[in-house]
Specification:
With 245 residues, this protein is mainly β. 8% of the residues lie in helices and 37% in strands. It contains 3 helices and 18 strands.
């Protein structure tokens, strides 16, 4: 029987340490060995980076402010840069010097009146990042995407997908690419007095339209979906949100 290394709480807590440093101008990396000459391009990654907001700790990893990382390979050389997504949530909290908005697992701060005014959470833009139709988009589960400059990683603003998304409409962080057509498909669930789920199609040139909208009798928590050559498949689990008046 092989002995197993004993893990402690500190092992997994290391993944929740805040990263505040931004390398906006980029830095060249040391390369061990040789990179293939034909290996060219940029790899983007995103995730929650700020878990502590002015002395207050987030209680869930979904809540940390998103940071984009870019690894660029060119001519046998490698460089790296990173930047926070400058969402209105992050800008507001930086200006106030404290946490203002609720998160997935972190209740809103302040008085009862203040909490009611800020009951609607704001995007942390920390879940996924995609490049499609000439746009680099930082995605979250319950809001509109945030557009990021693919070279500098500067935040360019919230993106309504060419007018396809209203002010409070969300699009998921898990789009699917149809490689036969170049179309990107995604969905959003609208919660309210009349719940519905919408399917969106974004062509290779970046034009987005709503392909379908289906009314729902309840408010399911839909995280992801599957795409076949002819169908978009959704599983509506019996985990629901209360009806919004």
């Amino acid at each position: 029987m092989l002995a197993q290394e004993r893990k402690t709480g500190a092992d997994w807590r290391a993944g929740f340490e805040s990263l505040e440093t931004e390398i906006g101008d980029g830095v060249e990396l040391d390369v061990e060995g040789t990179l293939p000459a034909e290996l060219e391009g940029t790899l983007y990654r995103i995730g929650p980076a700020r878990h502590d907001v002015y002395g207050e700790r987030y209680r869930h990893w979904f809540d940390g402010d998103g940071m984009v990382h870019a690894l660029q390979l060119s001519g046998g050389r490698a460089s790296y840069r990173n930047r926070f997504v400058a969402t209105d949530k992050k800008r507001d909290e930086d200006a106030a010097g404290r946490r203002l908005y609720p998160g997935f697992g972190t209740p809103p701060a302040g008085s009862v009146v203040a909490r009611m005014r800020r009951a609607r959470g704001k995007s942390a833009a920390n879940t996924n990042i995609v490049f499609h139709g000439g746009k680099l988009l930082a995605l979250w589960e319950a809001g509109r995407p945030w557009r990021v400059d693919p070279v500098t990683l500067e935040t360019l603003g919230e993106d309504d997908m060419g007018g396809a998304l209203g002010p409070h409409q969300a699009i998921s962080a898990h789009p699917k690419l149809d490689r036969s057509t170049g179309d990107m498909w995604n969905f959003g669930v609208d919660y309210g007095p009349r719940n519905s789920i919408s399917l969106y199609r974004t062509t290779a040139d970046g034009s987005t339209t709503r392909a379908a909208k289906v009314s729902l009798d309840f408010g399911p928590m839909v995280h992801d979906f599957a795409l076949t050559p002819t169908k978009a498949v959704f599983v509506l689990h019996p985990i629901t949100l209360p009806r919004v008046p």
